[in-house]
Amino acid sequence: MKAPQEVFAEYLAHENLKMTPQRRVILDTLLKKNDHLSSEELYALVKKRDASIGQATVYRTLKLLSDSGLIEPLDFADGVTRYEPCYGKDHHDHLICEKCGKNIEIVDEVIERRQEQLAKEHGFTLIRHKMYLYGLCPECRKK
Protein backbone atom coordinates (compact mmCIF):
# COMPACT_ATOMS: atom_id res chain seq x y z
CA MET A 1 0.00 0.00 0.00
CA LYS A 2 1.30 3.44 -0.91
CA ALA A 3 1.93 6.09 1.72
CA PRO A 4 -0.74 8.82 1.90
CA GLN A 5 1.86 11.42 0.88
CA GLU A 6 2.62 9.44 -2.27
CA VAL A 7 -1.07 9.01 -3.09
CA PHE A 8 -1.63 12.74 -2.66
CA ALA A 9 1.42 13.66 -4.77
CA GLU A 10 0.19 11.36 -7.57
CA TYR A 11 -3.31 12.82 -7.38
CA LEU A 12 -1.94 16.36 -7.55
CA ALA A 13 0.29 15.47 -10.52
CA HIS A 14 -2.75 13.99 -12.30
CA GLU A 15 -4.54 17.30 -11.71
CA ASN A 16 -1.48 19.26 -12.95
CA LEU A 17 -0.83 20.59 -9.46
CA LYS A 18 2.26 20.40 -7.28
CA MET A 19 2.91 19.03 -3.82
CA THR A 20 3.81 22.28 -2.12
CA PRO A 21 5.40 22.49 1.33
CA GLN A 22 2.14 24.02 2.60
CA ARG A 23 0.06 21.11 1.30
CA ARG A 24 2.51 18.66 2.86
CA VAL A 25 2.26 20.39 6.26
CA ILE A 26 -1.54 20.32 6.09
CA LEU A 27 -1.62 16.63 5.14
CA ASP A 28 0.96 15.66 7.75
CA THR A 29 -0.88 17.62 10.46
CA LEU A 30 -4.17 15.95 9.61
CA LEU A 31 -2.61 12.48 9.56
CA LYS A 32 -0.72 13.05 12.80
CA LYS A 33 -3.83 14.22 14.66
CA ASN A 34 -5.93 11.34 13.23
CA ASP A 35 -9.16 12.79 14.61
CA HIS A 36 -12.43 14.32 13.43
CA LEU A 37 -11.20 17.87 12.79
CA SER A 38 -13.07 20.89 11.48
CA SER A 39 -11.30 23.14 8.99
CA GLU A 40 -10.91 25.74 11.75
CA GLU A 41 -9.34 23.22 14.15
CA LEU A 42 -6.98 22.03 11.44
CA TYR A 43 -6.09 25.61 10.55
CA ALA A 44 -5.19 26.36 14.19
CA LEU A 45 -2.91 23.30 14.31
CA VAL A 46 -1.30 24.10 10.96
CA LYS A 47 -0.76 27.74 11.97
CA LYS A 48 1.31 26.53 14.94
CA ARG A 49 3.59 24.61 12.58
CA ASP A 50 3.82 27.25 9.85
CA ALA A 51 2.39 30.71 10.48
CA SER A 52 2.63 31.59 6.77
CA ILE A 53 -0.14 29.13 5.78
CA GLY A 54 -3.45 30.90 5.31
CA GLN A 55 -6.95 29.67 6.01
CA ALA A 56 -7.83 29.65 2.30
CA THR A 57 -4.92 27.29 1.64
CA VAL A 58 -6.24 24.93 4.31
CA TYR A 59 -9.75 25.01 2.76
CA ARG A 60 -8.45 24.38 -0.75
CA THR A 61 -6.17 21.58 0.44
CA LEU A 62 -9.01 19.90 2.33
CA LYS A 63 -11.00 19.82 -0.91
CA LEU A 64 -8.04 18.27 -2.75
CA LEU A 65 -7.47 15.73 0.01
CA SER A 66 -11.14 14.77 -0.08
CA ASP A 67 -11.16 14.50 -3.87
CA SER A 68 -8.04 12.31 -3.70
CA GLY A 69 -9.76 9.84 -1.36
CA LEU A 70 -7.42 10.40 1.56
CA ILE A 71 -9.96 12.04 3.84
CA GLU A 72 -13.71 12.19 4.05
CA PRO A 73 -16.04 14.93 5.27
CA LEU A 74 -18.29 14.05 8.19
CA ASP A 75 -21.60 15.61 9.17
CA PHE A 76 -22.41 15.19 12.85
CA ALA A 77 -25.54 17.37 12.44
CA ASP A 78 -24.10 20.29 14.41
CA GLY A 79 -23.48 22.62 11.47
CA VAL A 80 -19.72 21.91 11.37
CA THR A 81 -18.11 19.75 8.70
CA ARG A 82 -15.33 17.64 10.10
CA TYR A 83 -12.74 15.60 8.28
CA GLU A 84 -11.11 12.30 9.10
CA PRO A 85 -8.38 10.32 7.36
CA CYS A 86 -9.88 7.31 5.58
CA TYR A 87 -7.13 6.01 3.31
CA GLY A 88 -6.13 2.50 4.28
CA LYS A 89 -8.63 2.37 7.11
CA ASP A 90 -11.51 -0.01 7.58
CA HIS A 91 -15.01 1.33 7.19
CA HIS A 92 -16.78 2.38 10.36
CA ASP A 93 -19.92 4.20 11.38
CA HIS A 94 -20.53 6.75 14.15
CA LEU A 95 -22.63 7.05 17.30
CA ILE A 96 -23.09 10.75 18.07
CA CYS A 97 -24.41 12.39 21.23
CA GLU A 98 -26.72 15.24 20.29
CA LYS A 99 -26.11 17.05 23.56
CA CYS A 100 -22.32 17.04 24.11
CA GLY A 101 -21.13 16.04 20.63
CA LYS A 102 -19.24 12.95 21.78
CA ASN A 103 -18.82 10.47 18.96
CA ILE A 104 -17.82 6.85 18.95
CA GLU A 105 -16.64 4.93 15.93
CA ILE A 106 -18.43 1.61 15.61
CA VAL A 107 -18.15 -1.47 13.41
CA ASP A 108 -20.95 -3.99 13.26
CA GLU A 109 -20.72 -6.79 10.70
CA VAL A 110 -24.43 -7.64 11.06
CA ILE A 111 -25.43 -4.08 10.10
CA GLU A 112 -22.93 -4.05 7.23
CA ARG A 113 -24.32 -7.30 5.80
CA ARG A 114 -27.90 -6.06 6.20
CA GLN A 115 -27.10 -2.87 4.30
CA GLU A 116 -25.67 -4.94 1.45
CA GLN A 117 -28.78 -7.17 1.48
CA LEU A 118 -31.08 -4.14 1.36
CA ALA A 119 -29.18 -2.67 -1.54
CA LYS A 120 -29.30 -5.97 -3.42
CA GLU A 121 -33.05 -6.36 -2.75
CA HIS A 122 -33.60 -2.98 -4.40
CA GLY A 123 -31.24 -3.64 -7.32
CA PHE A 124 -28.45 -1.41 -6.04
CA THR A 125 -24.74 -2.08 -6.03
CA LEU A 126 -23.26 -0.33 -3.01
CA ILE A 127 -20.29 1.88 -3.74
CA ARG A 128 -20.01 3.54 -0.35
CA HIS A 129 -22.13 4.61 2.57
CA LYS A 130 -22.09 6.55 5.81
CA MET A 131 -24.20 5.82 8.84
CA TYR A 132 -24.63 8.20 11.74
CA LEU A 133 -26.65 7.15 14.77
CA TYR A 134 -27.75 10.08 16.93
CA GLY A 135 -28.76 9.89 20.56
CA LEU A 136 -27.63 10.75 24.08
CA CYS A 137 -24.47 9.33 25.63
CA PRO A 138 -24.64 7.80 29.14
CA GLU A 139 -23.17 10.95 30.76
CA CYS A 140 -25.73 13.26 29.15
CA ARG A 141 -28.61 10.95 30.03
CA LYS A 142 -27.62 11.17 33.71
CA LYS A 143 -27.87 14.99 33.69
UniProtKB/TrEMBL annotation:
Keywords: Cytoplasm, DNA-binding, Metal-binding, Repressor, Transcription, Transcription regulation, Zinc. It is found in: Cytoplasm. Belongs to the Fur family. SUPFAM superfamilies: Winged helix' DNA-binding domain. The keyword Repressor applies. InterPro entries: FUR, Fur_C, WH-like_DNA-bd_sf, WH_DNA-bd_sf. CDD domains: Fur_like (cd07153). This is Ferric uptake regulation protein. The keyword DNA-binding applies. Homodimer.
